[in-house]
């Protein structure tokens, strides 16, 4: 092959190959309707499929703030997962009940996941979503309206806003919600925002998830891990896992949350895979 022809072919192939950030280094990507940061684990070999964690940031933050959460970075490397942190428009999310209406967040999630899958090999059985504060509410929104887009949902300190959905078109989900009982920013019972909008009640939201998942009203067992006191529903008719973990602190991501939540996500995902095997 002539040298010029070979060089031209190389340039075409390079331009057609989606770019992906180096292992352990976050990089920013623009997509239709917004942007996101992504960080492959430091141990990634550049080929193997990875579990994916999409983490929605809190109010007035950006995806770059997610990349500074030390316990999350450490746990992401330990679990070998691709961490993706999308950017809300002007630091906010247009989830169900939100004061913001700047973007169709359900469509944005679809676009985000398609772009991530184009750039990296993602394990489809281990696509996870989480978020903190208003990002936690975005995780609830995704669970309700895009339930099958992720294997598990792990929101922190954020739930539905009023009016709470009567039901969720996304169907049953695996969900682990974590909340501080002393939280005054997003209280368990919710609170009004500018007298027009209203954060929802966590217990009312969990009741909807119990109905969606076909769970009994009362948890079947409880467990403690550090400061976390978890109520666990098992034997739900949908086969999904549902947990509510409370801690005595305020508006925060409690120490040890990342490892606890990712261990849970791994176990639930493995169980979902085994349940569909012949």
What does this entry look like structurally?
The protein is about 30% helix and about 25% strand. It is an alpha/beta fold. The protein has one domain: Alpha/Beta hydrolase fold, catalytic domain (Rossmann fold), CATH 3.40.50.1820. The chain has a ten-stranded mixed sheet with strand order 1-2-4-3-5-6-7-12-11-10, sandwiched between helices. A two-stranded antiparallel ribbon has the order 8-9.
User: What is the count of distinct domains?
Assistant: 1
Number of strands: 12
> Which runs of at least 5 residues are low in confidence (pLDDT < 50)?
1-18
Beta content: 15-25%
Short note summarizing the structure:
The protein is an alpha/beta fold and 278 residues long. It contains seven helices and twelve strands. It has a single domain, classed as Alpha/Beta hydrolase fold, catalytic domain (Rossmann fold).
List the helices and strands and how they pair.
Layout: H1 3-16, E1 27-31, E2 34-39, E3 50-56, H2 63-66, H3 70-79, E4 82-86, H4 105-119, E5 122-132, H5 134-145, E6 152-156, E7 174-180, E8 192-193, E9 197-198, H6 202-213, E10 221-225, E11 228-233, E12 242-247, H7 257-276
Parallel strand pairs: 3-4, 3-5, 5-6, 6-7, 7-12
Antiparallel strand pairs: 1-2, 2-4, 8-9, 10-11, 11-12
